[in-house]
Amino acid sequence: MPDTLSVTLSALADPTRRAILARLAKGEATVNEIAKPFDISLPAVSRHLKVMEAAGLISRGREAQWRPCRLETRALKAVDDWLSRYRRFWTESFDKMDAYLAELKAKEKGK
Amino acid sequence: MSTRLADDELLITRTFDAPASLLFALWSKPEHMKRWMGPANFTCPEVKIDFRVGGVYRVMIISPAHGENWFGGVYREIVENKRLVFTFTWDNGPSAGVETLVTITFEEKGGKTVQTFHQRPFLNVERRDSHVGGWTSAFDKLAAYAAQIAKEHSA
Known about the structure:
- The complex is a heterodimer.
- Chain A contains 5 helices and 2 strands.
- In chain A, strands 1-2 form a two-stranded antiparallel ribbon.
- By secondary structure, chain A is mainly α.
- Chain A has a single domain (about 5-85), classed as Winged helix-like DNA-binding domain superfamily/Winged helix DNA-binding domain (Arc Repressor Mutant, subunit A, Orthogonal Bundle).
- Chain A has helices spanning about 5-10, 15-25, 30-35, 40-55, 75-110, and strands spanning about 60, 70.
- The N and C termini of chain A lie far apart (about 55 Å).
- Chain B is of the alpha+beta class.
- Chain B has a single domain (about 1-120), classed as Alpha-D-Glucose-1,6-Bisphosphate, Chain A, domain 4 (2-Layer Sandwich), CATH 3.30.530.20.
- Chain B has an 8-stranded antiparallel beta sheet with strand order 1-2-8-7-6-5-4-3.
- In chain B, strand 7 and strand 8 form a beta hairpin.
- The chains are: A mainly alpha, B alpha+beta.
């Protein structure tokens, strides 16, 4: 089974794809609309969209010929959860680091 | 204090009442690391460190509720008392197999030390190349905005 989180993170690693996500956060858009602010070809944009769709970051309408793209929140939520777990892990570890440093200091003074 | 740079990386800056040399030891010596590594309710009974560039470390943290959890990685940069770079990957759990890169810098001022901790996914060449241009680009800000919108939509 492919590691979904890795796939999502890889897809997010590209600045163009991040910018496309930001565009789609404002609402769904066609490939032409998405490509407009970028200095890259339509096929290049389509390739980016394919990667993003495979990563579950976006979905594309099947019904219309222009297949509008929309943001899918679940994959981003997974990244967010992943980061929150790490944030908690380190913040709580650093709290313990603080306490341990205080303990070392007290021991030093007691000598 | 912590700040979010983009939607897939972590930056935690914290000042400790200790010299940089001691903080560096807390990261590099097993007997020290065992005393603080892991969230609240976890203890850290196992730390193995081969402290050299290219050397491997292995750590186990344990809690009554979550059992044993192993992680480890490889040291990539070591600048005594100043800077430490290593990879970090969980053996199991929801983030298993996702390699991350941790960069920690220590800056001592008047007996206290500012520790800057940075963690991000460590993926491939494409990823590293995309970092050229810096983290404060408009793209990253937009992406953070997108993530926020996503959160609001899913709420």
